[in-house]
Write a structure and sequence with these properties.
Layout lengths: L8 H17 L9 H8 L4 H6 L5 H7 L2 H7 L4 E7 L2 E9 L9 E8 L5 E7 L2 E7 L7 E7 L4 E4 L13 E6 L4 E9 L9 E7 L6 E6 L10 E3 L2 E6 L4 E6 L4 E6 L3 H4 L7 E7 L2 E8 L4 E7 L8 E8 L7 E6 L2 E6 L4 E4 L5 E5 L2 E6 L3 E5 L6 E7 L13
Antiparallel strand pairs: 1-2, 1-26, 2-3, 4-5, 5-6, 6-7, 8-9, 9-10, 10-11, 12-13, 13-14, 14-15, 16-17, 17-18, 18-19, 20-21, 22-23, 23-24, 24-25
Protein name: F-box domain-containing protein
InterPro entries: F-box-assoc_dom_typ3, F-box-assoc_interact_dom, F-box-like_dom_sf, F-box_dom, SCF_F-box_component
């Protein structure tokens, strides 16, 4: 078929291409970059500034609102939620050390705003669960889930007895179902202490707490459970075991304490603390009489033989931070946050102790990590995210 000399489709295509090039010429080059290159640029920007970048254009907003993209974006980012007297900060941690015998940590500060009178329960996947004390009389306050970067918060239903801070609780994520859950325990007697407890579970988004029965563990040693591998963990000191709650099946599992319990002697150990180190459950064993701290990591969750002694730090005294809470009309005390925050690939460990951040390297010992000279009340590891709390209420 002979093409007509009046067929101008080819000319139209050339004109359309020229107009497209002219249009793109007027768009800044950075807005035309592919997502993987943008990701490398975004990694070099402070988080609060990055939050503002969502409003540059529709493409950036869509990209920075994508949970999968932001998860990859922040995968190599280490952040600390630092609470000072009257100020809260999200600090991005840069490890510039050259090896295990060198200490070179830098903190890049972003100021965030959290309500006053807040007890942080847990940080999970960029979301913060906290309890806000509103009154010294019932109902005392409420539980919230918040994204401290975006400033969005979601109020959660109050447990049946309203007295949220009387007994241990925990916030975690089940990878199998993708559900976020809160677990809370309450005593069967209002007037006297009993280890016999009722277990309450709230699946975020369901709107109501569920009772799943009673149990006999004594979890008074620590207030907030630590979430690892889809389990919340507490210590039963009286039975010398770790009580792990499976968030998916909603059943309890007993895990062994690290060998220090037997090596040091139960009566010599002054405190035990949980943390999450490189994705594994870690227990820090402190012996005040020897000014020694041993850091153990369970490399394979639930396997006794996988306990590994990662580090022993000498010459350190860990005070006994406590949480205040109500029980039967009086104030009681309970252990607060553990001293060990992070462990890096080069062997360095970051501690929070006595209102200060300390870094430990094998050749340097303990070194102060300066943060604007602020006396810190608490420090929590926090994975940044732009996910809204409202996006998880479909569970």
């Amino acid at each position: 078929m002979t093409k007509s000399i009046y067929d101008d489709s080819g000319e139209n295509e050339r004109v359309s291409s020229m107009e497209k090039q002219k249009k793109n010429h007027n768009i800044p080059y950075i807005l035309q970059l592919p997502s993987h290159i943008l990701g490398e640029i975004f990694r070099k920007i402070q988080i609060k500034t990055l939050l503002q970048c969502r409003f540059v254009c529709k493409f950036w907003h869509r990209l920075l609102s994508d949970p999968q993209f932001t998860e990859q974006l922040f995968s190599g980012t280490t952040c600390l939620l630092l609470r000072g007297c009257g100020s809260d900060h999200l600090a991005t941690l840069k490890n510039d050390s050259l090896g295990p015998n060198d200490v070179a940590l830098k903190l890049l500060k972003d100021t965030i705003v959290l309500p006053k009178e807040v007890n942080i329960v847990s940080s999970c996947n960029g979301l913060l669960c906290f309890y806000k004390l509103d009154s010294w009389n019932p109902p005392y306050g409420r539980l919230y889930i918040s994204n401290p970067i975006t400033g969005e918060s979601l109020a959660l239903p109050t447990p049946p007895d309203e007295n949220v801070i009387s007994f241990p609780c925990g916030f975690g994520f089940s990878p199998m179902s993708g559900a976020y859950k809160l677990v809370r325990f309450r005593g069967t007697s209002q007037w006297r202490y009993e280890p016999y407890r009722e277990v309450l579970v709230l699946t975020v988004g369901s709107g109501a707490w569920r009772s799943i029965g009673n149990f006999w563990y004594d979890l008074d040693y620590m207030l907030y459970g630590v979430c690892v591998s889809g389990f919340l963990h507490w210590i039963d000191w009286s039975r010398a075991l770790i009580c792990a709650f499976d968030l998916e099946r909603e059943v309890f599992q007993e895990l062994p304490l690290p060998p220090s319990w037997d090596l040091e002697g139960r009566n010599n150990i002054s405190r035990l603390d949980f943390s999450v180190l490189q994705g594994c459950l870690s227990v820090t064993v402190t012996v005040d009489s020897q000014r020694k701290m041993s850091i153990w990591v369970m490399k394979e969750h639930g396997v006794k033989e996988s306990w590994s002694l990662e580090l022993t730090i000498g010459g350190v005294i860990v005070p006994r931070p406590c949480q205040q809470f109500f029980r039967n009309g009086r104030i009681s005390l309970k252990f607060g946050d553990g001293p060990v925050l992070l462990k890096f690939g080069d062997g360095q460990v970051l501690l929070f102790n006595g209102g200060k951040l300390l870094a430990h390297a094998s050749g340097k010992g303990l070194v102060d990590v300066e943060f604007d000279g602020i006396y810190l009340i608490s420090a929590h590891v926090h994975i940044p995210s732009f996910v809204s709390p409202k996006h998880i209420i479909g569970g």
